[in-house]
Amino acid sequence: AKLESDPQFQDDPSEIVDLILGRCVLDASGDFPGTSRSAFPKNTAAFRDRFGSEFTDMLIEEANLGRAIRGFGPKQWIYKGYGLFQYDLQFVLEDVDFFRERRWYDFDACLEKCLHELKEKRKRFPNDLWEAIRAYNGAGSRAIQYSKNVKQLRSGLPMKFPRWERQVCLWQSPFPRAKSLRLQCRQRRKTHCLLVAICLTQSPD
Fold first, then answer.
1. Which of 27, 46, 131, 141 could tie 80 with a disulfide, CB 3.0–4.6 Å?
2. 3-state secondary structure of 133
3. What is the pLDDT of residues 28-57, one digit of tens each?
């Protein structure tokens, strides 16, 4: 509501969506006190050692833009999740351009990465939908709970949706070319779970 009342968005409210997309840089695991991370990079120092200061400082700057919009002060941390569907920074080892070129600002690019990962997990577990969802989130107790959350949310959704190549709108303001389905949810984790539930119940053709 605060963003929607900002004068700079009055002429074109859809610009709020662009802002939200760009600021979806989350997950400080490995750097936030009391947290750890097994995947690369384990922390900011490990990333800097591998990729140097220029790339590292750019990601720190992007992280701080996201912190600022949430009312937090700056930190010298790189964050590990990028874009609406939180493409993990571990993939920088094989997909460096996504991060260097800030492609998480592009909804289509984010959705493409999300659907690719979902399809791959579904192929690995063709006969066990919920294990595929668990694998999508990772391993351990949190991933198991994530799968349970998706299952609970899926139980309240219609059984049929448009083909999963269609765009999905997850915010109150419409994304460009994202008109087939609107799920108006305020909690990021809830919207993410809902998308997983939708995509994994469609035919992966």
1. 27
2. helix
3. 999 999 999 989 999 999 999 999 999 999
